[in-house]
Amino acid sequence: MKILKKITNKVLYLCLFMILSIIIQIPTISEGFFGGESSKNINLFLHVAITFFSTIIIFLIVYTVYHRLNSKPIFVKNNIIRSYSFAVVFALLSQILQFAITALEKGNDRDLELLAASQSKLAPILIIALVLISPLLETMVWQGILQGSILKDVPPLFSIIITSVLFAFAHGYSFNYKTLELLCSGISYAVLYYVTDDLGSVVFCHGLSNLIVYLIYFVF
């Protein structure tokens, strides 16, 4: 009975994880243009309101689930220099690999709508979503809930592989170069969490990775 209950709980938590992995994308809706908008015609108040309120509500939901499944604090105060140094290294390595894959693909990977948004009044919202909101929510769900709780009894290597592959396909949607690039990020976040056991360092790594991408694709 105990084994059956444990399996049932795992399945329920996995279903909950899948739901959370979808709803955490809601705040990112406001980083692009809504229907009928253009770079010169933006309802900035609506974008700010959606970003702010959806982030607060979804964070509270995710944190409640995370706190129930994982007793570890999000930001660990021990070994900060070591953990965040690893975060910088992992962010740089993952982006170098992604740029190498992009070069092999020989294509333009820039999102034209996000490029237009980055050159409009939406730029601050886009940056905040990419560097702060998405990294925090995604790390809590992917590393904190999936890797650190649902898969905690799975051998580390398999836990890292499962988390990384699911992360890549959740963002890449199919077998393509984009998914392969995202697999590099997924592996870096999963390995970093295993090495540091600190969600805060993964949030930092994720945010730094997104910032590098933003600067290279949308600024330079």
Automatic annotation (TrEMBL):
Residues 124-212 form the CAAX prenyl protease 2/Lysostaphin resistance protein A-like domain. The chain crosses the membrane at residues 12-30, 42-63, 84-102, 122-142, 154-173, 199-219. Keywords: Membrane, Transmembrane, Transmembrane helix. The keyword Ion transport does not apply. One of its GO terms (biological process) is CAAX-box protein maturation. Signal peptide: none annotated. InterPro entries: CAAX_protease, Rce1/LyrA-like_dom. This is CAAX prenyl protease 2/Lysostaphin resistance protein A-like domain-containing protein. The keyword Transmembrane applies. Belongs to the UPF0177 family. One of its GO terms (molecular function) is endopeptidase activity.
